[in-house]
Amino acid sequence: xxxxxxxxxxxxxxxxxxxxxxxxxxxxxxxxxxxxxxxxxxxxxxxxxxxxxxxxxxxxxxxxxxxxxxxxxxxxxxxxxxxxxxxxxxxxxxxxxxxxxxxxxxxxxxxxxxxxxxxxxxxxxxxxxxxxxxxxxxxxxxxxxxxxxxxxxxxxxxxxxxxxxxxxxxxxxxxxxxxxxxxxxxxxxxxxxxxxxxxxxxxxxxxxxxxxxxxxxxxxxxxxxxxxxxxxxxxxxxxxxxxxxxxxxxxxxxxxxxxxxxxxxxxxxxxxxxxxxxxxxxxxxxxxxxxxxxx
Length: 295
Ligand SMILES: [Zn+2]
Description:
This protein is of the alpha+beta class and 295 residues long. The chain has helices at 44-55, 77-80, 93-99, 102-115, 197-207, 226-229, 231-251, 256-267, 277-292, and strands spanning 2-3, 7-10, 13-16, 23-27, 33-36, 61-65, 88-92, 133-136, 141-144, 148-154, 163-167, 172-176, 181-182, 189-190, 214-217, 222-224.
């Protein structure tokens, strides 16, 4: 089953903003709340409204867990962090060092601006250098009060700084983009390999061994039941299927460029609200090049 409603999606879990690029909120104890994922700046006002309605006092937000450096997974941070006086941002050491480079910050800013500006009431944004960050690493166990703990899981391939957060008590996995993008028409996982193909496959293989009752990717809502259980295996086989299609075409004289255009046409619509056209096409090209040059 798949849940895409804005608001309560489980007894202790809320989906904020939009299921296309959601942020998740849950209480870690009677006083404090945590956020997972960092969205796009266009939704900053909607997300702030949702948080205010649920939590009341914004001083009760204590943790904000980020999965990777991509613009659609941290774009809201600079706008909303100034509203949360007691919050700290948790991200992998690799994500934190990416944020330290001017180039990464500029890519995040310009892509967010292309997709849609944050509301005027939120122009008071914090500089990346002033974000209160806590660098974490794969293998860490984060204890959040007495009821929650997160195991930090390495999930490189889509992005090499990417981590997932696994809550063993609830068998709940915040997997971000490690599985790719869920195809809403066909019900399978489309690969999104943007940094390292071998790592991408290795990540999917490792994720198959986790018991997952609730799967929460970076886009598309909350998955449960068989959809959650079989997701990593499906993502792996879909990835290999795309690689086979590519190899077949190349053996028959077609090039990466033509296949990238076909995939772009086939897949762009689902993410058109938050992925600029040119970026989508370039991303398809990048993925196919990584697959074509696999050793
Ligand atoms: Zn991503």
